[in-house]
Amino acid sequence: MSAAIIEVADLDVYYGTSQILFGVGLSVRQGETMALLGRNGAGKSTTMKAIMGLAPPRRGRIRLRGTVISGLKPHTIARAGLGFVPEDRQIFPEHTVEDNLVIGKKRGPDGQDEWPIRRIYEVFPLLEPLRHRIAGRLSGGEQQMLAIARTLMGNPALLLLDEPSEGLAPIIVQRIGELLRQLRSIGSTVLIAEQNMHFCLGLASHATVIDKGQIVYAAGIED
Ligand code: ATP
Ligand code: MG
Question: Cross-referenced SUPFAM superfamilies, in alphabetical order (predicted)?
Answer without folding.
Answer: P-loop containing nucleoside triphosphate hydrolases (SSF52540)
